[in-house]
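Readers of this paper often ask what the protein records in our data store actually look like. The remainder of this section carries one protein's record, kept here as part of the documentation.

:::
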Amino acid sequence: MVAPAPVGIVNIANVLTVVRILLVPVVVVCLVHGGTGWRLGALAAFGGASFTDFLDGQLARQRGLVTDFGKIADPIADKALTGAALITLTVIGELPGWVTALILAREVGITVMRFAVLRRGVIAASQGGKLKTLLQIVAICLYLLPPSFGLPSLIKEVVMAAALVVTLVTGVDYVVRAVRMSRSSGQKGSAEQDA
């Protein structure tokens, strides 16, 4: 039986991940410049980059393009995109710093934890995790809308609050799952040594 050929690092899923990383500074520059046109540019860049996140994951699974590079670069690209947008919104005074700090602390902490337990297994994205990502994207897009569009602040704040709550709750869920995974793999190791 012939083993399947290894997937090359240069494939459409990984290219989309790299494009997402390259769009991060575009979002920041457009947002810092301000003005309706620049804000729409930031929104378009952020929206396009967020869509590549959905698309690259779908393509990687459907076409068997999962690579070690993708496993590492994809979550980094996601965190860089949302992190850069949140930090910039805080710097220009449109989003409280504590909101950004809580979201980033959760995102970085869970990403580090997922890499730490990678040798024991992959902690798959939960439905709550997918909802968290969607809420963060929608909330950031609402904040990126030009002020001249007249969107009531309350709408942005409510969606961001929902994103923050789901972000924190799913963070706790990932920690619980990681602890369970560590315990079960530790028990298996002990049983194998006893055998």
Remarks:
- DSSP finds six helices and no strands in the chain.
- The chain has a mean pLDDT of 83.
